[in-house]
Design brief:
By secondary structure, the chain is of the alpha/beta class. The chain has two domains: 184 residues, inorganic pyrophosphatase (n-terminal core) (Alpha-Beta Complex); 120 residues, Roll (Diaminopimelate Epimerase, Chain A, domain 1). It has ten helices and eleven strands. Strand 6 and strand 7 form a beta hairpin. Helix 2 packs antiparallel against helix 4 and helix 3 packs antiparallel against helix 4. The protein is globular, with a radius of gyration of 20 Å. The termini are far apart. The structure holds manganese (II) ion. The site of manganese (II) ion has 6 residues, from loops.
Length: 311
Amino acid sequence: MPEMLQKIIAYDEIVIHRHKNPDPDALGSQLGLRDILRYNFPDKTISAVGYDEPSLAFIGQMDHLPDETFKGKLVIVTDTANTARIDDDRYQTGDFLIKIDHHPNDDPYGDLRDVDPTASSASEMIANFAFEHGLQLSDTAARFLYAGIVGDTGRFLYPATTAKTLYTAAKLAAYHFDRTGLMREMDSFDIKIARLQGYVYENLEISSEGVARVVISQAIMKAYQISDSETSAIVSAPGKIKAIQSWAIFVEQADGHYRVRMRSKQAPINEIAKLHAGGGHPLASGANSYSTEENNDIFQQLRNNLVSFKK
Ligand SMILES: [Mn+2]
Protein backbone atom coordinates (compact mmCIF):
# COMPACT_ATOMS: atom_id res chain seq x y z
CA MET A 1 0.00 0.00 0.00
CA PRO A 2 1.42 3.42 -0.88
CA GLU A 3 2.49 5.60 2.03
CA MET A 4 -0.07 8.24 1.12
CA LEU A 5 -2.94 5.80 1.56
CA GLN A 6 -1.41 4.56 4.82
CA LYS A 7 -1.37 8.13 6.13
CA ILE A 8 -4.95 8.72 5.01
CA ILE A 9 -6.04 5.57 6.82
CA ALA A 10 -4.07 6.51 9.95
CA TYR A 11 -5.73 9.91 10.52
CA ASP A 12 -9.31 10.56 11.66
CA GLU A 13 -9.24 14.19 10.59
CA ILE A 14 -7.95 15.40 7.24
CA VAL A 15 -7.85 18.97 5.89
CA ILE A 16 -7.30 19.64 2.19
CA HIS A 17 -5.84 22.91 0.87
CA ARG A 18 -5.08 24.25 -2.62
CA HIS A 19 -3.61 27.44 -4.09
CA LYS A 20 -4.76 31.03 -3.72
CA ASN A 21 -6.78 32.55 -6.59
CA PRO A 22 -8.20 29.09 -7.31
CA ASP A 23 -8.88 27.83 -10.83
CA PRO A 24 -11.07 24.83 -11.72
CA ASP A 25 -8.18 22.38 -11.22
CA ALA A 26 -7.38 23.75 -7.76
CA LEU A 27 -11.02 23.39 -6.68
CA GLY A 28 -11.63 20.20 -8.65
CA SER A 29 -8.63 18.36 -7.20
CA GLN A 30 -9.30 19.62 -3.67
CA LEU A 31 -13.04 18.92 -3.63
CA GLY A 32 -12.68 15.74 -5.68
CA LEU A 33 -10.24 14.35 -3.12
CA ARG A 34 -12.50 15.50 -0.27
CA ASP A 35 -15.44 13.68 -1.79
CA ILE A 36 -13.50 10.50 -2.50
CA LEU A 37 -12.22 10.36 1.08
CA ARG A 38 -15.66 11.10 2.56
CA TYR A 39 -17.21 8.38 0.39
CA ASN A 40 -14.63 5.71 1.20
CA PHE A 41 -13.99 6.64 4.84
CA PRO A 42 -17.37 7.81 6.17
CA ASP A 43 -16.15 7.80 9.81
CA LYS A 44 -13.41 10.34 9.15
CA THR A 45 -13.83 14.12 9.18
CA ILE A 46 -12.62 15.49 5.86
CA SER A 47 -12.61 19.25 5.18
CA ALA A 48 -11.60 21.58 2.36
CA VAL A 49 -10.44 25.08 3.28
CA GLY A 50 -9.70 28.36 1.50
CA TYR A 51 -11.36 31.38 0.01
CA ASP A 52 -14.67 30.83 -1.82
CA GLU A 53 -14.03 32.32 -5.28
CA PRO A 54 -17.46 33.71 -6.33
CA SER A 55 -16.90 33.21 -10.07
CA LEU A 56 -16.30 29.48 -9.48
CA ALA A 57 -19.13 28.91 -7.00
CA PHE A 58 -20.80 26.59 -9.54
CA ILE A 59 -17.98 24.08 -9.02
CA GLY A 60 -18.35 23.79 -5.25
CA GLN A 61 -17.99 25.34 -1.80
CA MET A 62 -15.36 25.26 0.92
CA ASP A 63 -15.86 24.13 4.51
CA HIS A 64 -15.27 26.73 7.15
CA LEU A 65 -13.19 25.43 10.04
CA PRO A 66 -13.14 27.59 13.17
CA ASP A 67 -10.18 25.62 14.62
CA GLU A 68 -7.20 27.82 15.31
CA THR A 69 -4.75 25.05 14.53
CA PHE A 70 -4.87 21.74 12.68
CA LYS A 71 -2.98 19.92 15.43
CA GLY A 72 -3.57 16.19 15.21
CA LYS A 73 -4.79 16.43 11.62
CA LEU A 74 -3.38 15.22 8.32
CA VAL A 75 -2.99 18.11 5.86
CA ILE A 76 -3.00 17.52 2.10
CA VAL A 77 -2.26 20.32 -0.41
CA THR A 78 -3.26 19.85 -4.05
CA ASP A 79 -2.24 21.74 -7.22
CA THR A 80 0.11 24.14 -5.40
CA ALA A 81 3.75 24.49 -6.50
CA ASN A 82 5.12 26.45 -3.55
CA THR A 83 4.20 27.19 0.06
CA ALA A 84 3.69 30.93 -0.53
CA ARG A 85 0.78 30.03 -2.84
CA ILE A 86 -1.06 27.80 -0.32
CA ASP A 87 -4.43 29.25 0.65
CA ASP A 88 -4.89 29.27 4.47
CA ASP A 89 -1.68 29.37 6.51
CA ARG A 90 -2.99 26.86 9.02
CA TYR A 91 -1.55 24.14 6.75
CA GLN A 92 1.64 24.67 8.82
CA THR A 93 -0.05 23.56 12.04
CA GLY A 94 -1.05 20.02 11.07
CA ASP A 95 0.75 16.84 12.14
CA PHE A 96 1.79 15.61 8.70
CA LEU A 97 1.86 17.42 5.33
CA ILE A 98 1.34 15.84 1.90
CA LYS A 99 1.89 17.65 -1.42
CA ILE A 100 0.01 16.40 -4.52
CA ASP A 101 0.90 18.44 -7.58
CA HIS A 102 1.67 18.49 -11.29
CA HIS A 103 3.82 21.65 -11.45
CA PRO A 104 7.62 21.30 -11.61
CA ASN A 105 8.81 20.38 -8.11
CA ASP A 106 10.88 23.52 -7.50
CA ASP A 107 9.69 23.81 -3.89
CA PRO A 108 9.56 20.23 -2.55
CA TYR A 109 7.61 21.05 0.61
CA GLY A 110 5.82 18.58 2.84
CA ASP A 111 6.63 15.34 4.64
CA LEU A 112 5.47 13.30 1.65
CA ARG A 113 5.07 14.26 -1.99
CA ASP A 114 3.35 12.94 -5.08
CA VAL A 115 4.51 15.25 -7.88
CA ASP A 116 4.00 14.35 -11.53
CA PRO A 117 4.73 17.16 -14.02
CA THR A 118 3.63 14.86 -16.87
CA ALA A 119 0.04 14.89 -15.55
CA SER A 120 -2.28 17.43 -17.18
CA SER A 121 -3.73 18.45 -13.86
CA ALA A 122 -3.84 17.65 -10.18
CA SER A 123 -7.38 16.42 -10.83
CA GLU A 124 -6.07 13.77 -13.26
CA MET A 125 -3.62 12.63 -10.55
CA ILE A 126 -6.35 12.40 -7.88
CA ALA A 127 -8.65 10.46 -10.24
CA ASN A 128 -5.92 7.94 -11.02
CA PHE A 129 -4.92 7.68 -7.36
CA ALA A 130 -8.50 6.57 -6.69
CA PHE A 131 -8.74 4.25 -9.72
CA GLU A 132 -5.35 2.63 -9.04
CA HIS A 133 -6.03 1.96 -5.35
CA GLY A 134 -9.60 0.72 -5.56
CA LEU A 135 -11.21 3.80 -4.00
CA GLN A 136 -14.81 4.41 -5.05
CA LEU A 137 -15.88 7.64 -6.70
CA SER A 138 -19.22 9.32 -6.17
CA ASP A 139 -20.87 11.11 -9.11
CA THR A 140 -20.01 14.41 -7.41
CA ALA A 141 -16.33 13.49 -7.13
CA ALA A 142 -16.27 12.59 -10.83
CA ARG A 143 -17.81 15.99 -11.64
CA PHE A 144 -15.17 17.87 -9.60
CA LEU A 145 -12.29 15.99 -11.20
CA TYR A 146 -13.68 16.29 -14.73
CA ALA A 147 -14.01 20.06 -14.22
CA GLY A 148 -10.39 20.23 -13.08
CA ILE A 149 -9.04 18.30 -16.07
CA VAL A 150 -11.09 20.38 -18.51
CA GLY A 151 -9.92 23.59 -16.83
CA ASP A 152 -6.19 22.86 -16.94
CA THR A 153 -6.18 21.36 -20.43
CA GLY A 154 -8.22 24.19 -21.97
CA ARG A 155 -10.83 21.56 -22.78
CA PHE A 156 -8.21 19.08 -24.03
CA LEU A 157 -6.47 21.69 -26.21
CA TYR A 158 -3.05 22.07 -24.55
CA PRO A 159 -0.20 19.61 -25.20
CA ALA A 160 -0.25 18.45 -21.55
CA THR A 161 -3.34 16.50 -22.67
CA THR A 162 -2.08 12.92 -23.06
CA ALA A 163 -3.79 9.69 -24.02
CA LYS A 164 -3.87 8.97 -20.27
CA THR A 165 -5.64 12.30 -19.69
CA LEU A 166 -8.33 11.39 -22.21
CA TYR A 167 -8.66 7.87 -20.80
CA THR A 168 -9.03 9.30 -17.29
CA ALA A 169 -11.61 11.84 -18.48
CA ALA A 170 -13.52 9.07 -20.29
CA LYS A 171 -13.74 7.04 -17.08
CA LEU A 172 -14.99 10.12 -15.20
CA ALA A 173 -17.54 10.83 -17.95
CA ALA A 174 -19.11 7.42 -17.28
CA TYR A 175 -20.39 8.72 -13.93
CA HIS A 176 -23.69 10.56 -13.70
CA PHE A 177 -23.44 14.33 -13.70
CA ASP A 178 -24.56 17.09 -16.03
CA ARG A 179 -21.44 17.26 -18.17
CA THR A 180 -22.89 19.62 -20.77
CA GLY A 181 -24.21 21.97 -18.11
CA LEU A 182 -20.81 22.00 -16.40
CA MET A 183 -18.99 22.66 -19.70
CA ARG A 184 -21.44 25.43 -20.56
CA GLU A 185 -20.81 27.07 -17.15
CA MET A 186 -17.05 26.84 -17.63
CA ASP A 187 -17.30 28.29 -21.16
CA SER A 188 -19.47 31.26 -20.14
CA PHE A 189 -18.38 34.67 -18.97
CA ASP A 190 -19.85 37.96 -17.89
CA ILE A 191 -20.47 40.68 -20.49
CA LYS A 192 -17.75 42.80 -18.82
CA ILE A 193 -15.22 40.00 -19.53
CA ALA A 194 -16.34 39.94 -23.17
CA ARG A 195 -15.77 43.69 -23.36
CA LEU A 196 -12.33 43.37 -21.79
CA GLN A 197 -11.56 40.65 -24.34
CA GLY A 198 -12.55 43.17 -27.01
CA TYR A 199 -10.06 45.62 -25.48
CA VAL A 200 -7.32 42.98 -25.52
CA TYR A 201 -7.91 42.12 -29.19
CA GLU A 202 -8.02 45.83 -30.15
CA ASN A 203 -4.80 46.67 -28.30
CA LEU A 204 -2.56 43.63 -28.81
CA GLU A 205 0.87 44.48 -30.13
CA ILE A 206 2.19 41.62 -32.28
CA SER A 207 5.88 41.34 -33.18
CA SER A 208 7.15 39.98 -36.49
CA GLU A 209 8.21 36.74 -34.70
CA GLY A 210 4.70 36.17 -33.35
CA VAL A 211 5.01 37.46 -29.79
CA ALA A 212 2.09 39.52 -28.52
CA ARG A 213 1.66 41.79 -25.52
CA VAL A 214 -0.97 44.01 -23.98
CA VAL A 215 -1.00 46.08 -20.80
CA ILE A 216 -4.10 46.18 -18.66
CA SER A 217 -3.67 49.28 -16.53
CA GLN A 218 -5.46 50.09 -13.29
CA ALA A 219 -7.47 52.69 -15.25
CA ILE A 220 -8.63 50.04 -17.77
CA MET A 221 -9.54 47.63 -14.97
CA LYS A 222 -11.58 50.40 -13.36
CA ALA A 223 -13.26 51.37 -16.65
CA TYR A 224 -14.23 47.73 -17.34
CA GLN A 225 -15.06 47.06 -13.65
CA ILE A 226 -12.66 44.13 -13.63
CA SER A 227 -10.77 42.77 -10.61
CA ASP A 228 -7.24 41.41 -10.86
CA SER A 229 -8.39 37.80 -10.53
CA GLU A 230 -11.02 38.31 -13.25
CA THR A 231 -8.29 39.16 -15.77
CA SER A 232 -7.46 35.43 -15.80
CA ALA A 233 -10.54 34.98 -18.01
CA ILE A 234 -8.84 36.67 -20.97
CA VAL A 235 -5.37 35.10 -20.68
CA SER A 236 -5.99 32.48 -23.35
CA ALA A 237 -7.66 34.91 -25.80
CA PRO A 238 -4.50 35.87 -27.80
CA GLY A 239 -3.84 32.17 -28.49
CA LYS A 240 -6.85 32.12 -30.81
CA ILE A 241 -4.92 34.30 -33.26
CA LYS A 242 -2.98 32.27 -35.85
CA ALA A 243 0.03 34.62 -36.05
CA ILE A 244 0.64 34.59 -32.28
CA GLN A 245 3.02 31.98 -30.82
CA SER A 246 3.80 33.39 -27.35
CA TRP A 247 2.22 36.22 -25.42
CA ALA A 248 2.32 38.21 -22.20
CA ILE A 249 -0.45 40.11 -20.49
CA PHE A 250 0.79 42.78 -18.07
CA VAL A 251 -1.76 43.52 -15.37
CA GLU A 252 -0.94 46.64 -13.40
CA GLN A 253 -1.38 46.20 -9.65
CA ALA A 254 -2.51 48.79 -7.11
CA ASP A 255 1.11 49.22 -5.90
CA GLY A 256 2.27 50.02 -9.46
CA HIS A 257 4.03 46.75 -10.27
CA TYR A 258 2.80 44.37 -12.98
CA ARG A 259 1.61 40.84 -12.65
CA VAL A 260 2.64 39.15 -15.91
CA ARG A 261 0.67 36.24 -17.31
CA MET A 262 2.68 34.44 -19.97
CA ARG A 263 1.54 31.76 -22.38
CA SER A 264 3.04 29.97 -25.35
CA LYS A 265 1.87 27.47 -27.96
CA GLN A 266 5.19 25.58 -28.35
CA ALA A 267 8.31 27.41 -27.15
CA PRO A 268 8.79 27.01 -23.36
CA ILE A 269 8.66 30.33 -21.50
CA ASN A 270 8.98 29.34 -17.81
CA GLU A 271 12.72 30.11 -17.68
CA ILE A 272 11.91 33.71 -18.66
CA ALA A 273 9.28 33.82 -15.91
CA LYS A 274 11.92 32.67 -13.39
CA LEU A 275 14.12 35.66 -14.36
CA HIS A 276 11.26 37.95 -13.31
CA ALA A 277 10.15 36.72 -9.89
CA GLY A 278 7.91 34.00 -11.25
CA GLY A 279 7.71 30.51 -12.66
CA GLY A 280 5.23 27.83 -13.64
CA HIS A 281 4.62 25.38 -16.44
CA PRO A 282 6.71 25.40 -19.65
CA LEU A 283 3.82 26.86 -21.66
CA ALA A 284 1.90 28.71 -18.93
CA SER A 285 3.78 30.84 -16.43
CA GLY A 286 3.40 33.90 -14.26
CA ALA A 287 5.93 36.58 -13.35
CA ASN A 288 6.25 40.03 -11.82
CA SER A 289 7.63 43.20 -13.38
CA TYR A 290 8.54 46.35 -11.50
CA SER A 291 8.79 48.91 -14.33
CA THR A 292 7.82 49.54 -17.94
CA GLU A 293 11.49 48.87 -18.79
CA GLU A 294 11.17 45.42 -17.29
CA ASN A 295 7.95 44.91 -19.28
CA ASN A 296 9.95 45.72 -22.42
CA ASP A 297 12.72 43.33 -21.34
CA ILE A 298 10.22 40.49 -20.94
CA PHE A 299 8.72 41.21 -24.37
CA GLN A 300 12.20 41.24 -25.93
CA GLN A 301 13.16 38.00 -24.15
CA LEU A 302 10.01 36.32 -25.46
CA ARG A 303 10.96 37.46 -28.99
CA ASN A 304 14.54 36.16 -28.66
CA ASN A 305 13.22 32.93 -27.17
CA LEU A 306 10.97 32.35 -30.16
CA VAL A 307 13.78 33.08 -32.62
CA SER A 308 16.10 30.54 -30.95
CA PHE A 309 13.28 27.99 -30.64
CA LYS A 310 12.55 28.13 -34.37
CA LYS A 311 16.23 27.51 -35.29
MN1 LIG B 1 -3.42 22.57 -11.99
